[in-house]
TrEMBL record:
Sorted UniProt keywords: DNA-binding, Transcription, Transcription regulation
Domain HTH lysR-type: start-end pairs: 12-69
Gene3D superfamilies tied to this protein: 3.40.190.290, Winged helix-like DNA-binding domain superfamily/Winged helix DNA-binding domain
Annotated family: Belongs to the LysR transcriptional regulatory family.
Organism: Kribbella orskensis
GO-annotated molecular function: DNA binding
UniProt name for this protein: DNA-binding transcriptional LysR family regulator
Amino acid sequence: MDSISQRDTQRMELRHLRHFVALAEERSFTKAAARELIVQSGLSTSIRALEKEVGALLFVRGTRPVRLTAEGTALLPAARHTLDAAEAAQQAVQDAHGVLAGRLRIGALQTSGHSLPFSTWLAEFALAHPGVDISVQQLPALQMLDLVADGRLDCALVSVVEDHARGLEVIPLLAEPVRLVVSRDHPLASAESVTLRELAGERFVDPPAQWAIRVVVDDAFRAAGLTRRIACEVNEWTMVLELVAAGVGVTLAPTGFVLAPRVAAAVRLVGLTGVELVRRIDLVLPQGHAASPAARRFSEYVTAWAAGR
């Protein structure tokens, strides 16, 4: 099969396309079946029916994780477009009755709840729009920006990184200063402020490279012509701060955390001199009509909060 067009998808059952997209995104029959609330045998049957309809295998059998064939890769964008169009058609009918329906797939930073009333927004939205199914994923910033850009997330509360938000609408919400965090008995704990050069020889406890704060800090050291040693990399902020409190290393972190009393008593925040580092939190969603009705409505809750600050 040379190509699969959008016209081809119009003859297929929506549930088969939905199952196909779920498997393509989850790359696991177990996870895709759980996402679609069906048994694995039902998912397999649905995929085989779709493959029979298009006349080609869509997945390479026997691979883990599940991998698309060339034909499956060709079908995926058209399948997503068809599902989005079907959801928009359903929403058009619901709009006539003043009801929002469908789904809201939202990404959020692990620390969004510390600095922003994210849970309150979600609760208000869910209660006001019971016809919308909501899923929340907490992922690295760069990954979430990519997922919003290609339609796998409807919107995300994320720290926008330069050159990674092209084609997206960005609603600024918060800018938090970044401070050095050290243990109470660290030699720099008594300093009023430090320069990046003073930190070049320190052991750092850092989040992974796909996190926005890591990009900000790496770029700052690179711009200053400095290198640093990352002695421990952890993908959870609470553990980063606990390791710093234990004396494993230092870190540069945004100031919006609500620290556990034990950790707060064991660390000290020190200002930076010679450079101003901030961690932004923005709401990002596709521009214009590319944004789903649910994402656009959720953005109204967020912008109302931002306007009232």
